[in-house]
Model the fold of this input.
Amino acid sequence: MEQSWRWFGPEDAVRLAEIRQAGARGIVTALHHIPYGVTWSEAEIARRRTAIAGDGTLGLRWNVVESLPVAEAVKQNSGDLAPIFANYRQSLRNLAAQGIRTICYNFMPVLDWTRTTLAAKLAGGGTALRFEAVQYAAFDCYILARKGAEADHDPALLARAKAWADAASESDKDRLLATIMAGLPGAYERYDVPGLRRVLDLYRDITREGLRENLARFLREVVPTAAECGMTLAIHPDDPPRPLFGLPRICSSAEDLEFITAAVDHTANGITLCTGSLGAGPGNDLPAIARRFAARIHFLHLRNVAKEADGSFQEAEHLGGDTDMVAVIDAMLAEQARRKAAGIADWRLPMRPDHGHELIDDAARKTHPGYPLIGRLRGLAELRGVMTALAAVKGYPL
Done:
């Protein structure tokens, strides 16, 4: 596998030389300063690519875009979308011209990954990201005060959520809002409570089936261009894989992945296998999903979560938690071997260690939530060990 690392650009607190020290060679990044729906020019893409490859002693390359964002208007199927689709297609062409051919994107309405705590305490002093079901319900029902929200939560959980909201200070509530907003990448818009209500209202008439069709339309518009350019699109699963704030979620299960890959049945229409996002869903068997969709998986986010009975979950060690990471990696190494045997030129799957624990002096760096240096370095080292051991035992090419 091509060991890679998410980098948020020149302002990232983690430097390219440190990424190389961690053992990664592929850089996963995006042009976060360009607004949704606007074309990424070849000049802007070349500037970022050159920044990554500029020091030849590091041997780094921009191998995956994460992400080329989908405008909210596309998710809502609202207004004249022809210019937005045209811009997306041109961005794909411009990326291909610069040699970048794997594109991660998501179709989550309004919010990307959502947590309620960014620094849950671990033994020894580290911290982890956490989704606390009680705090989420408290925010949904008693801070956001979304109409009809109570019907979406278990009554026993609601009682605990009401108690939390009644005891919470204004600073507690502000912190929770800021945490929920933290899943949006660096430069994107954050919302206050009234602003979040307004943007959620734009989806009030969009059902799960409607959002699915909006995604299918997007795929019909852009997958042919990706195929022409020799590119692969890789949708990122919902995080967490459940409806949030009344918003439908359509990339949360094997059944959803089946719908998406069938919507445009071409290898260019593929999947980012995020073991943490899908792993937070109680019904998701990650090794089985990896085997079932292996030929359509184009990018790997490897991390783990520990789930709790009330719907809460916490980011675990990469080889801990509820997902059998060894079995997932085994399935993906077998798929790599199949691609190599079939003569596919780009047979190596790009992978990156996803969210890590903040360890040792990570907190002092003020990195993006979930993206510390030492915690991810540890994760990559552990995952590399699994890959190396499986390759040695089973003869997989790396």
